[in-house]
Amino acid sequence: QEARCHQDTFRVTNLSLGNSANFWKLNGSTISFEAQPRLVLNSGTYSLSLRVVHAEGCADSIEQELVVHSLPEIQLSPNATICPGQFTTLSVNGEAINAQWTPSSGLDDPYSLTPRAQPDSNTTYTVSVVSTLSGCSNTDRLQISVQSGFLTGYIAIGLYDSVLVDSSLIVGDSVGVWLVDTLHRNLSYTWSPNYRISCSDCPNPVLFPLESTEYTLEVTDSNQCSASEVFTLLLPVKQEYHLGVAAAFTPNGDQINDLIGVDGWGIQEVQLFQIFNRNGNEVFKGSGNQARWDGTTNAHPQPAGTYLYRVVATLWDNSEKTLQGTFTLIR
Question: Is the backbone peptide bond immediately before 236 cis, with ω within 30 degrees of 0?
């Protein structure tokens, strides 16, 4: 009997003549009474015997060793993900084997044990190996995934227009950036220049330049496969400066016009904000851009009437400006 392979289905050939009964045994156990039974066996060495009986009672028997070979073992390279236009090397390991890979598209040699693969799209490669010792064959497969690459045209960025004046930013103010990726990818971001920007590696930084600046955003997909997409934001900055204090305020606790402070644009820092009553007594003194008076002095409400103020501030052009005037406290 010729050699067979693990889990092959094969028929045992019976060349006996004149027999009317067949008794097949495998390792001493009866397995069939057919003339030519079909067998499916695991790898191993077996004793196969046949006893035939003539209609008149005469009998004969034969016993033969049956070898069922193991399938060749396959050790494949792991599944891989590649970038468009790149290649990876497939590999199959085993003892005394020949190989054939299918499909052959994207392979430099489909009969190599280590072909180079450069598929255009996701491809499942099947390798069939044949043992040169036993002739038994085996198959296995692996997946090569091809990243789609960076798809341009799916990202939009811009500035929040509500804080701009005539599409420009007043010096000293800030503006946020909005970004939308309709594919919701895991992207990395690089802003340049790294000049007066809240973060240079996030999608939605806040910009606060002191002069007109062209910001460039480079967006790259998470697998670093493809050429990045580049966006440009031109942010004009107006060099305008103004100090001002409201003409009146109403500190009545209704949270509407309850505080008075220095307003304007182009203000780098309020160095001094003083308020005097009609007698020339100081009732408030503060500094900083958020300095505000609530109409009290030492927790005592001040009377309605006219008050004098004095402001000293440094502007974003580093000049110093002083402003004096009056306002009305309304009760």
Answer: no
284-310: per-residue pLDDT in tens?
Answer: 999 999 999 999 999 999 999 999 999
pTM over 0.85: no
Distances (CA, A) of 223 to 147, 220, 228, 308, 327: 8, 8, 11, 64, 61
What is the pLDDT of the chain when averaged over all its residues?
Answer: 91
Surface-to-core class of residue 168, CB atoms within 10 Å of its CB (0-12 exposed, 13-18 middle, 19+ buried):
middle
Q: Spell out the residues 6+ positions from residue 2 whose beta carbon is closer than 8 angstroms to its own.
A: none
**Which stretches within the chain are classed as H helix?**
none
Buried b vs exposed e over 115-140: b needs ≥16 C-beta within 10 Å?
A: bebbbeeebebebbbbbeebebebee
Q: Compute the distance between CA of residue 262 and CA of residue 76 in angstroms, rounded to an integer.
A: 73
Tell me which residue of 176, 181, 170, 169 sits closest to 197, measured CA to CA.
Answer: 176
Write the CB contacts of 224 (distance below 8 Å, at least 6 apart in sequence): 83
Using alpha carbons only, give the angle 145, 148, 150 rounded to the nearest 5 degrees. Answer: 145
From CA 78, how far away is CA 93, in angstroms rounded? 12
Q: Which residue has the tokens 């309304």?
A: 330
Please name the residue that has the structure tokens 């046949």.
50
Tokens 């190989």 locate to 99
Rg (CA), the chain: 44
- Which tokens is 211 given? 């002069």
- Is the peptide bond between 193 and the residue preceding it cis, with omega within 30 degrees of 0? yes
Q: How far apart are CA 266 and CA 243, in angstroms?
A: 8
Residue 1 · residue 26 · CB < 8 Å: no
